[in-house]
Amino acid sequence: MPVEYPPRLLMCPPRHFEVSYSINPWMDREAWRKYADTFAQTTEAEWLSLKALLEQFGAVVDLMVPVPEVPDLVFTANAAVVLDGKALLARFRYPERRLEEPHFAAAIDALVKRNILKSSVSLPAYIVLEGAGDCIWDPQRELFWIGFGPRSSKQATMIVEDTFGFPTLSMDLVDARFYHLDTAFSVLSNGEIMYFKGALSSSSLRMLYEHVNICDRIEVSEQDACSMCLNGIRIGRRLIFSSCSPRLQRQLADRGYFASVTSLSSFMLSGGSAFGLTLRTGHASRRHPRARPRTQRATPNLGDLHSYGMVTAADWIAA
Ligand code: ARG
C-alpha cells in the first residue's frame, strides 16, 4: 500500500487569544476575566499539547503569525476552504472576525508562495462563508457538507461548487450552541458521519439519512456534543478530542478508531476545539494528481492503532 503525503495543517499560536467579545453562546467574557491568570497559563500549554499530538501522529504543521486584537485568529479552520491546492478565502459574519480576513489571506498567500498551495480565490462581496468550519470535505463521498444559518449564507453552496467542481449538501443549523457545522457534524476517515441530531433541522436530517448509510451514522449524545467531541480532528484512524465520553470512545474503538484526549478547555470558552484550531491544507480529491490511489476501506488493525508514535501507510487512507 503506497504511503501518501502526511496531513498538512495551518495553525496560529495563541499569543493573543482571549475571550474579549461574545458572538456565540460559549463565549463567556466574565468567566474569562475572572480566571484570566489561569487561562493565560493553560491556553499556550493546551495549544502546544494539541500541536505535539498532531505531529506525533505524523501531521505537518505550518504556523501563521499571531496578531494582536484578533483573538479568534487561532481558529484557523475558519480561514478558508481548501481542496486540491486551491483555497477559497473566508468571509465572516461578525465585524469582530472580519478583521481576521486580511491576516488569513496573507497566511494563505504565504502557503501559495511556498508552493504548499496552488492558488487562492475570494468570495463575492455579499456572501458569508466561514471557511472549513462551515464547509467540511467528505473524502469518501467526494462532496462538501455546508452548514448555514448562524454564520454562513446558503448562497455559498453555488460558489463552493463552482470553485472546486464538487457537489455540496447543505445542513441547516438550528441550535445556537452549534453555530458552525464543525461543532455538530464530523466526517471520519472510513466515511462514517458523527453528528448531534438536535443541531440539525428535520429536512437536513432527512438529507443526511438519504446520503449516509445507517451503519455509517454515529449519533452522539447532547453531553458529548456539548463537550465539543464533534470538533475533533481525524488523522487517519486516530482521533483527537478535548473530551469524549467512555461510551463514545468504545463505539469508535469498535469501528477501528483510536481516540486521544487532550484538554482544550480555554478554547472551548470561545466556542472552539481541536478541529477549529487547525486548517487542513492537503485535502485532495481522487482526480487531483497528488491524490493517493484509493484502496478498499481500511481494515481496523488494533495492534497498529495502539502503537502511538508509529505512522503506517494505512493511517493515510482517507486522512
Ligand atoms: N469564537 C469563535 C467564533 O465564534 C470560535 C470559532 C471556532 N471555530 C470553529 N471552526 N468552530 O467564531
Annotate the secondary structure layout:
Layout: E1 8-11, H1 29-34, H2 36-56, E2 60-63, E3 80-83, E4 86-89, H3 95-98, H4 101-113, E5 119-121, E6 135-138, E7 143-148, H5 156-164, E8 168-172, E9 185-187, E10 193-195, H6 202-211, E11 217-219, H7 222-226, E12 233-235, E13 238-241, H8 246-254, E14 258-261, H9 265-268, E15 279-280, H10 302-306
Parallel strand pairs: 1-2, 4-5, 7-8, 10-11, 13-14
Antiparallel strand pairs: 1-15, 3-4, 6-7, 9-10, 12-13
Structural write-up:
It is globular, with a radius of gyration of 18 Å. It starts with 7 loop residues before the first strand and ends in a 13-residue tail after the last helix. It has helices at 29-34, 36-56, 95-98, 101-113, 156-164, 202-211, 222-226, 246-254, 265-268, 302-306; strands spanning 8-11, 60-63, 80-83, 86-89, 119-121, 135-138, 143-148, 168-172, 185-187, 193-195, 217-219, 233-235, 238-241, 258-261, 279-280. Residues 293-319 have low confidence and may be disordered. α6 links the parallel β10 (193-195) and β11. The strands form 5 sheets. A 3-stranded mixed beta sheet has the order 2-1-15, with helices on one face. By secondary structure, the protein is α/β, with parallel strands linked by helices. It contains 10 helices and 15 strands. The protein has a single domain (8-318), classed as 5-stranded Propeller (L-arginine/glycine Amidinotransferase, Chain A), CATH 3.75.10.10. 27% of the residues lie in helices and 18% in strands. The protein binds arginine. Residues 23-24, 27, 72, 75, 77-78, 97, 133, 180, 182-183, 231, 270-272, 276 line the site of arginine.
